[in-house]
Amino acid sequence: MRTRQKNLRRTVDIGMTVLLLLQMAYQATGEAAHEWLGMGMTALVIIHQIINRRWYASTFKGRYTAYRAVSACLNAMLIVSFALTALCGMAMSNYAVPFLYGVVRVSLVRMAHLSMSHWSFVLMGLHLGLHVPAMLQGLKEKVRRALSAACAAVAGVGLYLFLRNGMPDYLFFRVPFAFLDYEKAGALVLLENVAMLLFWAFMGWQAAVALRGRERRWVSVALMIVAVIIGMALNAALPNREEAPFSSGWSAAVPRAGMETIYTQRSLS
User: Is 246 among the domain residues?
Assistant: First the structure.
């Protein structure tokens, strides 16, 4: 029975991760698939909550260590961001649940959906990272350190892509539309999404090691700093994307050459 539950939990977790990566690849999937994948993601998130319902029962029990406090806050924020992403997406649906279109002002939910979906992406990465130490318990210490060092370099590339693709703009409501490069190959979009997710997972992983008070926690802190330095250095040294044509997040959208915005004629109402 326990093996079956573990397999179900693992299947749901993998499914959510895959769907999240596909959801962030709108230009590769298209609007209709994006909506239906979102419905699938919503269903898996609900199933995930049911499977892990004991977490809710234990929330107010026992002593809170630094790791548990951070994990609990992260989980709560992730649940809220997922819920808002789904609700806002449904409120401007054209395919999956069109009868819900306009239940909330579309201009409002469009920006909220854009921001919350990116927060879900970041928080999901951190959430995954917090569980990595448990997954690597069977490895020798030297192997874990070598793996951490290698992942720091990959994470740095992920941060560079995160900055180059303007993700911080979406997180903080600085732009009203998502600017996407439809000329980029779908496989490359997915690969970039994986690298960006790995950056946040790496940060969550090393933070988990440091928070649990294991020996040489300074190594984890140093690796996080190295990953950030690599990402910032690449962002400064390599050509970046064109800046979004806004003086502020509330300006009118003007697509750049080779780029398009996510909105339909119906969404402009």
Answer: yes
Residue pointed to by tokens 């230009």: 27
Q: What is the pLDDT of residues 207-264, one digit of tens each?
A: 999 998 755 788 899 999 999 999 999 999 987 654 444 333 322 333 333 334 444 3
Contacts of 95 (CB under 8 A, 6+ apart): 31, 32, 35, 36
Q: In which region does residue 240 sit, left (phi positive, over 0), alpha (psi from -120 to 50) or beta (all else)?
A: beta
Q: Which of 222, 210, 201, 224 lies closest to 65 in space, CA to CA?
A: 210
Report the DSSP beta bridge partners of residue 180: 260
Q: Which residues pair with 260 in a beta bridge?
A: 180
Q: Is 75 a domain residue?
A: yes
Query: How many CB atoms neighbour CB 145 within 10 A?
Result: 14
Alpha-carbon distance of 98 to 95, in angstroms, equals: 6
Report the domain count for the chain.
1
In a domain, 155, yes or no: yes
Per DSSP (E only), the strands in 95-224 are: 179-180
